[in-house]
Design goal:
Mean pLDDT: 84
Largest sheet: 4 strands, mixed
Oligomer: single chain
Helix content: 40-55%
Number of strands: 4
Number of helices: 2
Radius of gyration: 27 Å
Low-confidence stretches: none
Strand order of the largest sheet: 1-2-3-4
Shape: rod-shaped
């Protein structure tokens, strides 16, 4: 999984910030490593130099293999809280997305297999009864 971190002009995009965000994303989304090709993180300060609550925004976009990108946004009073909140939201969204896919695979295969076995049993039973009738005649 490739992780890219971008920040706007109001947030100092230091190497330490990029390392921290990348490590946090990699740590929390580690179990999806094989299913995600890239994660893009955008950090913004919506008020610029002015102070304000809920003015730090973190948007994270994950690109799962073979699926549409999933994007989440979280606003908070500090960059740390915005990043952690967005990572949690993305983890929940990915759990939901991959959970739906897994349940479709499991439920989609089970009825087909049961019907095939039942149909096969019915044919075997018909053959057996036909043979029995021939023997008794």
């Amino acid at each position: 999984m490739q992780i890219q971190v971008h920040s706007d002009n109001h947030i100092e995009g230091s190497a330490r910030l990029v390392e921290w965000v990348s490590a946090s994303v990699a740590d929390k989304l580690d179990r999806f490593d094989d299913e995600i090709t890239r994660v893009v993180v955008h950090l913004n300060d919506e008020n610029g130099i002015k102070a304000g609550s809920q003015d730090k925004r973190c948007q994270i976009e994950a690109r799962p293999k073979g699926l549409q990108p999933i994007s989440v946004t979280h606003k908070a009073e500090s960059l740390d809280l915005a990043v952690e909140g967005a990572i949690d939201k993305l983890g929940n969204a990915l759990n939901h997305q991959f959970g739906k896919l897994r349940s479709k695979r499991v439920t989609g295969l089970a009825p087909v297999a049961e019907e095939a076995v039942e149909g096969q049993d019915a044919l075997l039973e018909e053959d057996f009864l036909a043979d029995e009738q021939l023997r008794s005649s």
